[in-house]
Amino acid sequence: MLALIPDPRRPPDATATAAITTFLGAHTGTPVTLQLPGSYADVVDGLQRGTIDAAWLESLGYLAIKPRVNVNLVTRTAECLPTYTAAPKPAGCKPVAGRQSIILCSTGVTISELTDGRDWSGLKAKSFVFGDPASPGANLWPRYYMRRNHVDPDHDLAHPTVQPVAAAAALQIYNSQSDCGAFTGDPRPSVLNLAPDIFERTRVVFVAPVALPGDPQVISAGLNQKQAQALSRALLQMGTDGSIAGALNSLYGAQGLRPATDSDYDFLRRVVADVNPAAPAMLLPSPSASPHA
């Protein structure tokens, strides 16, 4: 049983999930079925009860469940870097583990490019839109770098707001409703049909020097050794097999999977400890009455 990221705002693509479960089943010799948990609490409950053998998580979700259940980290998602232009990611681009956190501003705003360790005072008094409070790239990462560079995100910005939907936040900046905002990756290609000149009216002023660690794939430590080894090999093969690349991209925008270790998430732990130690717990409400099937 493979559980996917519990996110009702982002239901998984049915064709992609079918391709992935078929691939894993063929490469493990055991049928793989899919579960769509209602919350991370359901993931913890399923791993503890043995009704979930493996899970595809978000990076913060990994920090949330790790102290509560014994899992082995196998892989993490890899993506091609954004072009920061209207051009799509080039065919044959080389995926790198993790994603980028950026700050995007309206071109109508006077602000210099931001560099870690330099002057960030130009960001003060700017209206700013953050992503979901539990989003590493659109909330925790930018707050961490603001604080490092002497900008208090709660008091130095004008009218900081939260918009969990990246496309809506990008349009907020495009329509001059906010001066700047934080994002995981570049949201602008997703709104070109609504704002064809968004690349002319906005610009990236900061790309975090440390990338987000990528979405992890974990296996329950309670799974028998033979099955766990077969599933680990299948995940690693899936990460570089071109026949499944389209499904990975359709599922969560990944262009591959790379081997992962727990230490890959140490910088995320540092950011969480500095910005919002309660962030992982925000993903753990009470288990649903009945997990989604």
Explained architecture:
With 293 residues, this protein is α/β, with parallel strands linked by helices. The protein is built from nine helices and twelve strands. The protein has helices at 14-28, 40-49, 59-65, 136-148, 166-174, 198-201, 225-238, 245-252, 266-275, and strands at 2-3, 34-35, 54-56, 71-79, 96-97, 101-106, 127-130, 158-162, 180-184, 202-207, 216-220, 256-259. The strands form two sheets. Strands 1, 2, 3, 4, 5, 11 and 12 form a seven-stranded mixed β-sheet that branches. Strand 1, helix 1 (14-28) and strand 2 form a beta-alpha-beta unit. The chain is globular, with a radius of gyration of 20 Å. The N and C termini lie close together (11 Å). Residues 287-293 have low confidence and may be disordered.
Structural class, from helix and strand content? alpha/beta
Q: Strand-and-helix sequence, N→C?
A: EHEHEHEEEEHEHEHEEHHEH
Poorly predicted spans: 287-293
Enumerate how many helices there are, as a single number.
9
**Which strand-content bin applies to the residues?**
15-25%
Classify the helix fraction into a percent range.
25-40%
Main sheet overview = 7 strands, mixed
Label this structure with key terms.
globular, 293 residues, disordered C terminus, alpha/beta
